[in-house]
Amino acid sequence: MELLPVRPTIKTPAQAFTGDVYMTPIHSGTGPSRMTVALVRFTPGARTNWHAHAVGQTLHVTEGVGLVGTRDGAVLRIHAGETVVCPPDEQHWHGAAADTFMSHLAMLEAKPDGGDPTTWLEPVADELYEKANQQ
Length: 135
Description:
single chain; mainly beta; Jelly Rolls; two-stranded antiparallel ribbon; 12 strands; globular
């Protein structure tokens, strides 16, 4: 058993997020575990760029109301206590609704070869985000 200290919270990079988003790393697995977990906090209106994860991603909402969208136009409104499972290589985005904060635990696995499990893509257009908030 090992007790890990609280790690510093960082502001996420503007090239992968719109708005103010903060991330606190929780766990980065070392062989044989490849699990990575972080607490991600989105201010109202903040969101990720489009992205995909080689081995998928699980999001567990801990606070507030958020949105998760996929390339086919589907949008989920997510609430505290709910969990969303994004399959491997599915292009998606997620973030807070326009009028509330949203926090979630982001859980994903590193690729077996140790490479970056996330492929970051372009920002989510404001029009698409605004439409998602109306659903």
